[in-house]
Design goal:
single chain; 697 residues; mainly beta; Maltoporin, Chain A; 7 helices; 7% helix; globular; OMP_b-brl_3
């Protein structure tokens, strides 16, 4: 009965949104001897293994910080408690196809400082195949900043400003510029920018009869970044060179009081990140045959200090240095087996060195080495697509603290993955996937130092003794015309690393622990409704030829997530929301985003007492000067309802958090116009991950 209802629904969506399959309105990508021809971008693309969100053309996403834009994506959750999660899966964060190796509050601070108008698109890879490291865990988010170089000098300038009014006015502004060019021998690109951010945050730890801590933080964050790229053409081959640097200075004045204390502190965090990447792409007469060599290095340095106001003696003085090295080789070829078959094979070697200091005393010296090889087949036969792969990885983890030596961890393990997809008709498919992954404890969770905040009653700790987590991931989904999707996934996890609140003697601490066994179940549903279906009727609407990104519609989504933990009365949490687009007179686009959740459910050992991320945002945008100038006005958290209220399960304490989420601002994006519309475009900054695993083209 349910199947008989779903099929007519899919046919309706197919008829409605297939009308975008014209040469003028759709994205059409063709690869011909490394030349990419691309038309108008879709706001959302559903691939077999990932979802792609365009940022550069979506004013409601790129008008503020990257963190604010990510929070508006359906199904994506970002918080200091949950971390970054999509459809129930923890995300490993990549930037331009390379792992960032940033986690926890370090990652949140970086995303909050990076302007969203510097981002091209976001890929969320929910079914990472064998070519991705098994240490990616359940899913990957790839933040792509690179643009296309053209056979002429082109430039884009972006600017944004916003303010909030909580006790006093606080301001944010950012500026960035992108310049690139290409000739017959090489292409180059430079992207540089800055972000200044004033904000406040109020947090409370308390029980029914005891106030542990009431903190009020007044923050100022500054970020500067430079991204550079060179591409050299060597006959049919390509050499890509990239260097990125960003620096942050985060200051906070913190007034706190609670049981037995009153404090006024200053905190200062300085961060420096450098990254170098070299990629050589060997190409053959057979364009389906490719061989890539990649070498990456990145370094993250963090210095954190906390001291009482008007005193030089520091309460906390912690710093860390992380060096990450990676070398990999990827080979791809294609031959005629069944309909078509693509074979990929590769190897990867990486090393992470992590050192932490507390008042200049080394209290963690940690080294992790990984070596892996993979093999994957992608094939198509009639209406079926198949992916089968295996990845063999070996790990060696050693380390020591200032008082003892960590147990050496050595392991060799095989990780399989398999995907079967049945294509009902063009752009409508059913997909089933299984993959096994591992997650090694990130350096933020391992860090024994407090790099957040402490007072006599509240503290934050890492745990150098954490064990890796093993995942068995299962997923089945139905997708139609990019816009409709329904899916169910579940994960069985062993030694899941979690963050939880523990209490003792009228104090509380946030700590990292291994959970021996748990499972995560997740259901998701998304459905678009064009408004013209109510004004013109279905029959009349089918006569129109329209672009779904340029009509009035509402996109509804719902997801339910349940963490099942032994010994815990687990209850699910339902997240829901919508994104509505209305085209006003003068082609002004009005976009509304709303997100909320039910209460009473648990996220690991936290129980939600208030709706999670309960917020409504408005954006008005318009393009001028032949679409070269984009301007937008944004109102975030119009109703001022976004706040957290969580209970620490197993403790008498609750955690409450409020920040200046209600803001008003504007942004502009200006592209230097050019008369050369037929210039060849190639991506020179990065070797992006494979975008479409639907399989052989």
């Amino acid at each position: 009965m349910r199947f008989s209802i779903i099929i007519p629904m899919l046919l309706l969506i197919s008829n409605l949104f297939a009308q975008n399959q014209t040469k003028k309105d759709s994205i059409a990508k063709q690869e011909l001897k490394e030349v990419v021809i691309q038309n108008n971008k879709k706001s959302i693309e559903q691939k077999a293994d990932r979802t792609i969100f365009s940022f550069s053309d979506q004013a409601h996403l790129n008008s503020g910080s990257l963190l604010e834009g990510l929070k508006k994506l359906p199904g994506l959750i970002v918080s200091d408690v949950a971390g970054m999660m999509y459809q129930g899966k923890q995300l490993e964060v990549y930037m331009d196809g390379r792992p960032t190796n940033m986690y926890s509050n370090e990652l949140t601070s970086y995303l909050e400082g990076m302007p969203a108008n510097a981002i091209e698109k976001i890929e969320i890879i929910t079914q990472p195949g064998a070519e991705f490291p098994a240490t990616s865990g359940g899913a990957i988010i790839n933040i792509i900043t690179s643009k296309n170089a053209k056979k002429y000098v082109s430039a884009t300038y972006s600017n944004g400003y916003s303010f909030s009014k909580y006790t006093k006015s606080r301001h944010r502004f950012n500026n960035s510029i992108l310049i690139n060019a290409k000739n017959d021998w090489f292409g180059w690109q430079v992207q540089l920018g800055q972000n200044y951010n004033e904000s406040f945050q109020k947090t409370i730890f308390k029980s029914t009869d005891l106030l542990l801590s009431d903190n009020y933080s007044d923050k100022k964050n500054k970020l500067y970044f430079i991204k550079t790229g060179l591409k050299f053409d060597i006959k049919n081959d390509r050499l890509l060179l990239n260097y990125d640097i960003n620096t942050q200075a985060n200051l906070a004045d913190i007034a706190a009081f609670g049981y037995g204390f009153t404090a006024n502190d200053n905190s200062k965090t300085n961060k420096l990140r450098n990254e170098v990447s070299v990629v050589y792409q060997k190409r053959f007469q057979n364009t389906a045959k490719k061989l890539d060599f990649s070498l990456d290095f990145n370094q993250n340095q963090i210095d954190f200090n906390l001291h009482p106001i008007n005193q030089n003696a520091a309460t906390l003085s912690n710093n860390s240095v992380q060096n990450y090295y990676q070398f990999k080789i990827d080979f791809t070829n294609e031959w005629h087996f069944l309909d078509k078959t693509k074979w990929s094979i590769g190897t990867l070697a990486e090393r992470t060195d992590f050192e932490t200091r507390n008042f200049d005393v080394v209290n963690l010296d940690y080294t992790r080495k990984t070596f892996s090889i993979y093999n994957e087949l992608q094939s198509s036969y009639k209406s079926f697509d198949f992916i089968f792969g295996t990845r063999l990885e070996s790990y060696e983890i050693t380390g020591k603290t200032d008082t003892y030596t960590l147990n050496t961890f050595k392991r060799v393990r095989l990780f399989p993955n398999a995907t079967i997809q049945y294509n009902l008709m063009k752009d409508i498919f059913i997909n089933a996937n299984y993959n096994q992954k591992i997650s090694l404890p990130n350096t933020s969770a391992l860090n024994p130092n407090n790099t957040n905040y402490q007072n006599p009653n509240v503290n934050f700790y890492g745990n150098p003794n954490l064990d890796p987590t093993l995942f068995d991931n299962y997923e089945i989904k139905l997708s139609a015309m990019e816009y409709f999707n329904i899916g169910y996934s579940w994960t069985n996890a062993q030694n899941q690393v979690i963050s939880r609140i523990v209490s003792s003697n009228n104090s509380a601490a946030n700590v990292s622990q291994n959970l021996p066994k748990m499972s995560i179940h997740h259901f998701t549903f998304g459905f678009p409704v064009p408004f013209m279906i109510f004004t013109k009727g279905i029959k009349k609407m089918l006569e129109y030829n329209f672009n779904p990104d340029e009509i009035n519609f509402i996109y509804l989504y719902l997801e339910n997530q349940k963490h099942i933990i032994e010994g815990l009365d687990s209850k699910g949490v339902t997240y829901f929301g919508f994104m509505a687009q209305i085209i006003l007179p003068q082609k002004i686009k009005f976009t509304t985003n709303f997100n909320s959740s039910t209460t009473g459910g648990n996220y690991y050992y936290y129980q939600m007492n208030r709706p999670f991320y309960n917020q409504m945002d408005f954006t008005f945008s318009k393009k001028f000067l032949s679409n070269n100038l984009s301007a937008s006005i944004v109102l975030n958290d119009v109703l001022n309802t976004n706040r957290q209220d969580l209970s620490g399960i197993g403790t008498p304490f609750t955690y409450q958090n409020k920040y200046d989420s209600r803001r008003i601002g504007f942004s502009i994006n200006y592209k230097l116009p050019s008369k050369n519309k037929l210039a060849k475009e190639e991506n020179i900054l990065t070797k992006e991950q494979k975008e479409d695993r639907t399989l052989v083209k």
